[in-house]
Design a protein that fits this description.
heterodimer; A: alpha/beta; Rossmann fold; 3 domains; six-stranded mixed sheet; globular; B: mainly alpha; ABC transporter involved in vitamin B12 uptake, BtuC; two-stranded antiparallel sheet; 15 helices; about 0% strand
Chain lengths: ~500, ~350
């Protein structure tokens, strides 16, 4: 990059919360018109650092400079006025308001309290044009847009503030590959216009594509920084985790046996339209596809959470059409929800309750739960899955995302499910926990369990699965052994360039 | 480390975790219990009423007054913990007290009257639960409707006037006996205490109880975990209805007549008792012991206020304030996490 003055500079920033030292001296520099990846495990201090940048917290120590001048925001509004814009992982949109209203939320152009609607339309359209989406309908309520479009609205909103620095926190966590490509294009455009971007993501491959430079945080300290182009991902991971990590993906031979789950022309109310799929003992079957292709719905219909409209589900050679989740659990099937906060877990109940909810029998006597036995059972799983918590009685809400996900998975293991339907099991969790979950899946398959693994992240599908199925518009486009797939081929099938032709003609 | 970062908790919470589940339950209990002691202490300050307020006879009176609300609160706790609400309690109590009176007037035995009265409450609950579960309707709306229906049915059945029943064993249920001594307590109070003990075990230690909490905590998760949510709701509202019927029986026994206009607005007292006891209207939290203490707090306030010679309106204002205070304190004890 050019040797000009950095747009943003944070020097030796420290912050403590009570007994916890969240930041122990972080230095961080972003040049004008560059994309800077901020990398680190959950809890490494990325969010704290960004909260200091956006004025939510004040640093205990250290200095900040923005565009050459001193910068010490006392509140978020201050930071926003100085030119810091944030786009958070969870979208912050008012779902019933229109695209235009959302873009200008909180900064409506007004005269004496009356909104000047024509001016508003102009600003909103200009912001959308800047990211190359001037065709987006301004009057449409955002809850009728796709997640990817909603994110563009967020980006447009951030741009109306004329930011000097734009922070994107896990922007791709709910995007598909195609939507991601669009987002990267927008990022490159903004970069050319001179906006500095701080890009936070768990996905290193993504950071490598999007960013010019990177900084790695670990335990509240800067441990590495450099040019992305010359960086080696393995050494970055090593820096991040701070310990020698075995291969991220497990490599073990799976003994693939007889079919345990067959879907025959499975159809739900709108999706899936018709899915045929066979899962065998000891197999990890990956399911790829765009968001909205019907992957989640396939799992839900199969598990009895959504209505089965036609087709058959064959479990262990026993045919059944519709069944309740209770029946599926009794058949040895378990489903991990893609939405662990809203569906997967009881957030205000204990770890022990969450782990044992589907199978209390081993710790019951005459219908009464023996709490000691329950705690012990929970402790065994917490140990096996490396759940970091104080005790089995701790509330779920207090755990980090990775640990929550391990508990959600642990419930399927405690249930002794033989058929595991995992919907985005690694979404929003740190690299360390991800690797643990991949290895766990590998071990389970070796033990003869059968796993369906739905994911939008192709490297993990290619790294973990024996077979990959690709869905497109509610139908199964193609199924092949993992060796016959490449990322490119999967994307082509997912957008309907290969499989759909066959299906339609 | 991630584990450390999530531990910015207040000292109370740290103490709670020290011994795991049990210590937490005890501490949750101490809050409302402390509130009960506080209101008793407050009314004991004034020497003019101290003696009569703290007398065994008055304590018995308070317990007898609290029994009706407390018995209903047992059912309401189940409903609120599972994420629902029932506004028809007051009307069901009126209806069932009329049913008792009519049965006794019709010459049926006390046993028959007791059984049929409780079942009437259960039937109303069954209807509530079936509509709520079957049509996936909001409990608030369904039971609001039932509040009117049950009240109307009570008036219709009673011909819009109090039904005086002949003396029977049912009258013994809430009979106070000696006015000056604490013992013997009315049978109804013992019934309430025993039922509370049973329900407390059911709620905290059985699979049924865990499932109840699971449904209230997150219905989608409960479903994912194979809990048959809708049938559960029918059972919950029906069982709660039985408790409301029993409250109606106690109400009848206290007045020794069936009054179709009785217990107006009592549903709010019952809900308030459960909430003062630590339950959240959002579901997933609450306890039987807490709800019983909540009912006692309200009874002590009513009794103390009338001993002080305060007017009815003062009582209402104080009780309203106490409800807000109790829930406010509860928020302090359990700060909501992001």
């Amino acid at each position: 990059m050019t040797g000009q003055l950095p747009r943003l500079r944070m020097v030796d920033v420290k912050k403590r919360f009570g007994a916890t030292e969240a930041l122990r001296g972080v230095s961080f520099e972003v040049a004008a018109g560059t994309v800077h990846a901020l990398i680190g495990e959950n809890g490494a201090g990325k969010s704290t650092l960004m909260k200091i940048l956006s004025g939510v917290h004040r640093p205990d120590h250290g200095t900040m400079e923005l565009a050459g001048g001193p910068f010490s925001p006392s509140n978020p509004l201050d930071a926003r006025r100085a030119g810091i814009a944030m786009i958070y992982q969870e979208l912050n949109l008012a779902p019933h308001l229109s695209v235009e209203e959302n873009i200008l939320l909180g900064q409506e152009p007004s005269a004496f309290g009356w909104i000047r609607s024509r001016r508003r339309g102009e600003i909103a359209r200009a912001a959308l044009a800047e990211i190359g989406h001037e065709d987006m309908p301004l009057e449409r309520p955002v809850n009728r847009l796709t997640i990817a479009e909603q994110q563009l609205v967020e980006v447009a909103r951030a741009l109306t503030q004329r930011p000097k620095v734009l922070v994107m926190d896990e922007p791709t966590s709910s995007l598909t590959q195609v939507d991601m490509e669009n987002l990267f294009r927008v990022i490159q455009d903004l970069r050319k216009k001179g906006v500095s971007i701080v890009y936070i993501s768990h996905f290193l491959e993504e950071c490598k594509r999007a960013a010019d430079r990177y900084t790695v945080l670990r335990d509240g300290e800067t441990v590495d920084s450099g040019e992305m182009a010359s960086a080696d991902l393995n050494s970055i991971i090593h820096r991040m985790v701070g310990r020698e990590m075995e291969e991220i993906y497990p490599r073990g031979e799976h003994q693939i046996g007889e079919p345990v789950l067959e879907l025959r022309q499975l159809a739900g109310e709108t999706k899936p339209r018709s899915v045929d799929m066979t899962l065998r003992r000891g197999e990890i079957l990956g399911v790829a596809g765009l968001v909205g292709a019907g992957r989640t719905e396939t799992l839900r219909v199969c598990f009895g959470l959504d209505r089965l409209c036609s087709g058959k589900v064959v479990v262990l050679s026993r045919e059944s059409s519709a069944a309740s989740p209770a029946r599926r659990l009794a058949q040895g099937m378990g489903l991990l929800s893609e939405n662990r906060k809203e569906e997967g877990l009881l957030l205000n109940r204990s770890i022990a309750d969450n782990l044992t909810l589907t199978r209390f029998q081993p710790m019951c006597r005459w219908g009464v739960i023996r709490e000691k036995a329950q705690r012990q059972a929970a402790q065994v799983w917490m140990h096996q899955l490396d759940v970091r918590a104080e005790s089995p009685a701790q509330s779920m809400r207090e755990l980090s995302g990775g640990n929550q996900q391990k508990v959600a998975l642990g419930r399927l293991l405690h249930h002794e499910a033989d058929i595991l339907l995992l919907d985005e099991p690694t979404r929003g969790i740190d690299v360390g926990s991800k690797a643990q979950i991949y290895h766990l899946m590998g071990r389970l398959a070796t033990q003869g369990k059968a796993i369906v693994f739905v994911s939008s992240y192709l490297p993990e599908l290619l790294g973990v699965c024996d077979t990959i199925a690709v869905m497109c518009r509610g139908k199964l486009a193609d199924v092949r052994p993992v060796g016959e797939w490449t990322e490119h081929a999967i994307i082509k099938a997912a957008v309907g360039q290969v499989g759909a032709e066959k299906a339609n003609h | 480390m991630p584990a450390n970062q999530t531990m910015q908790s207040n000292p109370i919470q740290r103490l709670v975790r020290w011994r795991g589940i049990r210590a937490r339950t005890i501490l949750d209990m101490v809050g409302p219990f402390f509130g009960l002691l506080l209101v008793i202490a407050l009314f004991s300050i004034d020497p003019a009423i101290r003696e009569s307020f703290l007398s065994g006879g008055n304590m018995k009176l308070i317990l007898t007054q609290a029994a009706v609300v407390a018995t209903s609160a047992l059912g309401m706790t189940m409903i609120i913990v599972s994420g629902g609400i029932d506004l028809s309690v007051g009307s069901v109590i009126a209806l069932t007290s009329v049913v008792t009176a009519k049965l006794l007037v019709g010459g049926y035995s006390a046993t028959t009257a007791v059984v049929v009265t409780a079942l009437t409450g259960g039937m109303v609950g069954l209807v509530n639960g079936t509509i709520i579960a079957g049509f996936r309707m909001m409990p608030f709306i369904v039971t609001l409707g039932m509040m009117g229906i049950a009240r109307g049915a009570a008036k219709w059945l009673a011909n819009n006037q109090a039904v005086y029943a002949p003396d029977s064993a049912v009258n013994q249920l809430m009979a106070k006996g000696s006015v000056n001594q604490f013992f013997p307590l009315p049978i109804g109070v013992w019934v309430m205490v025993i039922l509370a003990a049973v329900m407390s075990v059911v709620m905290t230690r059985t699979v049924f109880g865990r499932h109840l909490f699971a449904i209230g905590s997150n219905e989608a998760t409960a479903r994912l975990c194979g809990i048959r949510v809708q049938p559960y709701k029918v059972v919950i509202y029906s069982a709660a209805g039985l408790f409301f019927g029993l409250s109606g029986l106690m109400q009848f026994s206290r007045l020794t007549m069936g009054d179709p206009t009785v217990a107006k607005g009592l549903e709010l007292d019952v809900i308030a008792a459960v909430v003062i006891g630590g339950a959240s209207l959002g579901g997933g939290t609450g306890s039987i012991l807490g709800s019983i203490i909540g009912a006692l707090i309200m009874a002590v306030l009513r009794n103390g206020a009338s001993q002080m010679g305060w007017g009815n309106y003062t009582q209402e204002i104080i009780i309203g304030g106490v409800i807000i205070l109790a829930v406010g304190l509860d928020k302090l004890r359990h700060p909501k996490k992001e």
